[in-house]
Design a protein that fits this description.
Pfam families: CoA_trans. The chain has 215 residues and is α/β, with parallel strands linked by helices. 15% of the residues lie in helices and 26% in strands. It is built from four helices and twelve strands.
């Protein structure tokens, strides 16, 4: 993972309430575990573990202990193990307070596309659809632009939507947006970036209510 991705993961931490149950999606979201203070939250993975810890050192990897993306994790003392069906029951029953998801695109109303690119092989939507519908708060952790430099925050998603429920917060290396009254509101510009940079790399309309940078 790159330094930019690690920075994004660190910038998500202030949006996680203390002692909340949090599911971390594949990619940048999984890195949030490495930036959370000990016992700041109860991390949940849909393959059946509540109490996920930080990424293990190479010599401490347990091949049987992985998150939903099949990457190694640790388990904190007191962690609980259960069937995937029970894990999805927790999600669908509203018992996950925060979901942190990656995104390919975010539209002007806060809907996300994060599971399929037309013309490329598709493994399936996984748990993202359930998390968008079932989690009480959804935070997106993503780079501000795609690899080709095009904006990820767009007027309308060109890729298939993951669900019709909009997210609540979008965190990139450059900015933080909240979804309020059906639209995006820029609430923070990160250190090292400017309003002009954000405006030039965001194609969706948004309102501006900037707070001082926190991370």
């Amino acid at each position: 993972m790159s330094d930019i991705q690690r920075r994004i993961a660190a910038r998500v931490v202030p949006h996680i309430p203390a002692r909340s149950v949090v599911n971390l999606g594949i990619g940048i979201p999984t890195m949030v575990a490495d930036h959370l203070p000990d016992h700041a939250a109860y991390l949940h993975t849909e393959n059946g573990l509540l109490g996920v810890g930080p990424t293990p050192a190479p010599d401490r990897v347990d091949p049987d202990l992985v998150h939903a993306g099949k990457q190694p994790v640790t388990a904190r003392p007191g962690a609980a193990y259960f069937a995937s069906s029970q894990s999805f029951g927790m999600i669908r029953g509203g018992h996950v307070e925060v979901a942190v998801l990656g995104a390919l695109q975010i539209d002007a109303a806060g809907h996300i596309a994060n599971w399929a690119i037309p013309g490329k092989p598709v493994l399936g939507v996984g748990g993202a659809m359930d998390l968008l519908v079932g989690a009480r708060t959804v935070v997106v952790a993503t780079t501000h632009t795609a690899k080709d430099g095009s904006p990820k925050i767009v007027a309308e998603c060109a890729f298939p939507l993951t669900a019709r429920r909009p997210v609540d917060v979008v965190v990139t290396e450059a900015a933080t947006f909240r979804v309020i009254d059906g639209g995006l509101v820029l609430t923070e510009v990160a250190d090292g970036f400017t309003l002009e940079w954000v405006r030039g790399h965001t194609s969706a309309d948004y309102r501006v209510a900037v707070e001082p940078a926190r991370v």
